[in-house]
Amino acid sequence: MASKEVIEPLLPTSSNTIGTRILDIPRSKGRLRRTKSAPHADSPHSETTGTGTGADTCPVPRSGFIFGNLGPSLRRVALVLILYMGIGTLCFYLVRYQIRGEKTNGIVDAIYFTIVTMTTVGYGDLVPNSPSTKLLACAFVFSGMALVGLILSSAADYLVEKQEILLFKTLNAHQNGHCDMTKEIDTDKARNKCIVVFLLLILFIISGTVFLVTIEKLGFIDAFYCVCSTITTLGYGDKSFSTKSGRIFAIFWILISTITLAQFFLYIAELNTERRQKSLVKWVLSKKVTNLDLEAADLDNDRVVGAAEFVIHKLKEMGKITEDDIAPVLKEFEKLDVDQSGTLSTSDLTLAQSS
Amino acid sequence: MASKEVIEPLLPTSSNTIGTRILDIPRSKGRLRRTKSAPHADSPHSETTGTGTGADTCPVPRSGFIFGNLGPSLRRVALVLILYMGIGTLCFYLVRYQIRGEKTNGIVDAIYFTIVTMTTVGYGDLVPNSPSTKLLACAFVFSGMALVGLILSSAADYLVEKQEILLFKTLNAHQNGHCDMTKEIDTDKARNKCIVVFLLLILFIISGTVFLVTIEKLGFIDAFYCVCSTITTLGYGDKSFSTKSGRIFAIFWILISTITLAQFFLYIAELNTERRQKSLVKWVLSKKVTNLDLEAADLDNDRVVGAAEFVIHKLKEMGKITEDDIAPVLKEFEKLDVDQSGTLSTSDLTLAQSS
């Protein structure tokens, strides 16, 4: 469910920014040191795009691709959701006499049934009562699951990042300047996202419980039980939304709260991965470099290991890259290195691109 | 939910293997070319561990960490599952008179109710009928969701890989040798896993439908509808397992089939990510290298770009690594480069480790 979107135009921009940055630095032997000491200032995104601030720090590489197409991705998800809801409502409204159970308003029930099916809550307070309606429900639950996956993989993450920035901006309001806030977010991205989603979840649990107590006239325990049963998509169905206003509330509340809980579990998993990755990085960096390591790292076989070779070796040890990531790039390098000097220069490029 | 496990001892082994391999290659200017032309033979895992065969090829870096601790992870998941089921069964057996609905055998119903709750199917054929039982069910559904996430993140992936190897071994039985099979699996890991899980899913749908028709005496459409309603965890509850033998079957079938469907959606997402990553890699490699790229890639500022520098630059463009991955390694490099020559040699190591 954690498939992240990639948009290509981002990358040339990113590399150009880095290129410009490096050109600004005076050319001396000490440049390597500069690049090292200022990793945060280096990030081309931290100042320009608010939502992409932490993506560079995130040790889970898949997340690194999020910030590119949040706009279009969100629009696409919203469009698919509207389309799904529209078709669902129309279908279940047309077959409303083949659905049995507690009825309120025709349209409201159709939307409510679509949401309850899509999120796999499946209370059973409304159930299909004819073979064709049953098959229709089957089709909608499968596509609903896929749609929830789509929402989780792009839209939810985007919205949480937005809220995260808002929250930490408020919390850091006493500090002056945007930069501090950005750094704060950078330091522990996954943890902050967990906190934000957890707070949202508490909010939805409270609002759902209060609503069920006041509007649906349930007891407190029953209301809380119905809320838990709903957000986990358990949906035993002994307690559900049975009034018209209850179902109108449920349409929005069920969609948002079930997705928030799923997102919460995803972030917990991401947090675990991040922690594990961080400790792995620490371990790889602290372990003793042996002569065997030097030999392994010596890519161009000049008997010494340059900074770049060392970086590749260590990133391989960290599992961030593999032989198979490197091989095609080396092939490309060989193609460009026309004079076979083992290095690329401007003349190589001119030769390679003219031939 | 896609949090993958990392075990540390794997990595030194991996790097040592690479070290040994490079030592075997005659030291000449042409060595770079050799490394490039044989990426598959390079993989230290492809011959030794059956389950890890494709992990090096997988463009989704998170999956690269799976193969390390499948054994312990699987055992841990099995242990947690048994513990959860044991406590669940005991609790719901003790409060069996506070659960209303269609009853069969006390123990069977307790296990069945635990499974129906844990997987969030929640038919509602058995529902808690007292405040304490309702709160108990709430506790079990939350922990059940976490447990399903745990199963999805480790055990299910492991079992699918096992089955994948079995399947493709059978399909490739006419080809001689283990190596061909390994290569076949390597070429399109995510697609193969999708196929395997899809076939399993079909198997579970058919077996569930047949069982419901023969044992629970449902009509074909109703049986299929109940199967769909169950594996998606929708569980309207108008059709469910109501006999003792039906529930014994359901205990195993619900757990396996719901996890298989969730895993199927996860693999579809992984497949999409993989395809997108592949096209991004292709695009980054095919795009024209400019002088600006050369300047950006020139990490050690010697006015030429070595193979390793080129690799880092391109991997950064692909989004596989970021500045923040590189910065701490460069810091470590600087610490080791005692004579500040810009390269690491045996003498650097001796100096750095004696001080």
From TrEMBL, chains A, B:
Record GO biological process: intracellular potassium ion homeostasis; stabilization of membrane potential
- Gene Ontology MF annotations: metal ion binding; outward rectifier potassium channel activity; potassium ion leak channel activity
Q: Which InterPro entries match?
A: 2pore_dom_K_chnl (IPR003280), EF-hand-dom_pair (IPR011992), EF_Hand_1_Ca_BS (IPR018247), K_chnl_dom (IPR013099)
The primary location reported for this protein is: membrane
Name the Pfam families for this protein. Ion_trans_2
Q: Where is the signal peptide?
A: none
Cellular component terms (Gene Ontology) = plant-type vacuole membrane; plasma membrane
Is Amino-acid biosynthesis among the key words of this record? no
Q: How does it sit in the membrane?
A: Multi-pass membrane protein
Q: Where is this region: Disordered?
A: 29-56
Top-rank taxon? Eukaryota
| Potassium channel domain span | 80-160, 200-272
Keywords of the record, alphabetical order, are: Calcium, Ion channel, Ion transport, Membrane, Metal-binding, Potassium, Potassium channel, Potassium transport, Repeat, Transmembrane, Transmembrane helix, Transport, Vacuole
Q: Which residues cross the membrane?
A: 77-95, 107-124, 136-160, 194-212, 248-269
Q: Where in the cell is it found?
A: Vacuole membrane
Q: Which PROSITE patterns match?
A: EF_HAND_1
The protein's matches in SUPFAM superfamilies, at most eight in alphabetical order, are given as: EF-hand, Voltage-gated potassium channels
The similarity annotation says: Belongs to the two pore domain potassium channel (TC 1.A.1.7) family.
| Name the record gives this protein | Two-pore potassium channel 1-like
Q: What species is this protein from?
A: Cucurbita maxima
Q: Its encoding gene is what?
A: LOC111480615
